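To assess whether ligand presence alters the predicted conformation, the chain was also submitted together with adenosine monophosphate. Input:
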Amino acid sequence: MNKKTIEDIDVKGKKVLVRCDFNVPLKDGKITDNTRITAAMPTIQYLISHGAKVILCSHLGRPKGEVKEEYSLKPVAEELTRLLGIDVKFATDITGESAKSVTNSLENGQVALLENVRFDPREEKNDDTLSLELASLTDGIYVNDAFGTAHRAHSSTEGVAHHVKEAVEGYLMQKEVKFLNGALENPEKPFIAVLGGAKVSDKIGVIENLLDKVDEILIGGGMSYTFLKAKGYEIGDSLCEEDKIEEAKTIMEKANKAGVKIVLPIDTVIAPVQEETDESLDKKAKQKAFFAFLEKSEDKVVDSDKIEKGWQGCDIGPRTAEQFANELQKAKTILWNGPLGICEVEKFSVGTEKTAEAIAKTDSVSIVGGGDSVAAIKKLGLESNFSHISTGGGASLELLEGKVLPGIACLTDK
Ligand code: AMP
């Protein structure tokens, strides 16, 4: 069943709540990348030009149900004001006195932004009382344009839809679903998936769902070593999920039966393992220390079946990058998720960047998701060479696993 769209409803003079994904990176209170805000512009501009009273809401970061100034959406209101060229009113709460007064004072074509919905502990619990309060700010119309949180059933992403007359998807949501579902349902062949990132466990569902759709899967990054070990290769101290080795074997057997070619790295850039880690550090600080160690460590390229003990795979090697590029050349549809090496460290981002360049050169429908792959594309200035850059890493993975996303399922059918 097709979902209703904004165009199917009369929004003129009506208070419309739009859930956006304004979860932007901030440094010292300044937005360092406004992509997620610009991505929401088509929906907001449509509503403004059709005379709606636009009420925007979003989360930012993980304040865990508490009011934390550093996660305030105030800088986003300022950025919206700049981008839209009209004064965007800011409510200092979510459904309280400020929100009521700001939203009730809106004239047709005006815009307001509510404070971070995750300041309210009820949001992530999908508490119906908050969903009702959000719905009561509107004239019965809700638009979900937050693809990045569509895999979460929260009050502002799912619950509220049950308390309004019309719940529809915004243009960003529509575009994300169109590209991702289009690749799954009707891809032009050859269809090649490129998967990287740290963990096999995060991508097993995706691989399973892709096996009867793709022609090839190119695997790199931390997840490749579990596959290499499953093939009996010596992977030294590379990242490996021991409890997923059997599953990796099964996937390779299934792929073989389905005629899907799985391409694993033939060579690998390796570095020595960090001998000591300061156990008193928290997870983030440990990761920072790990990257600092790698920046200075020696590195060398070896065949992927000859990684010695005491060494770890950090990036696909040059021959693999070339092989991936050759395979990708023939693709008509490409889906890419996850970096092919420890891309936070400059010298181990080569494989990821070479793959981004190879995909950019093709004339395929190219769809990419996941923060690190997208960051590599942006760093190289190749955004315009990709057909679709997804704004939702987790949500796109769940969609690719074939799951129904609650933030979409709750919307009104035609
Ligand atoms: P994901 O969130 O699953 O897309 O994984 C992204 C993370 O995978 C990044 O932080 C990378 O540093 C990490 N990663 C990629 N390749 C490797 C590798 N060979 N060893 C360890 N971590 C890796």
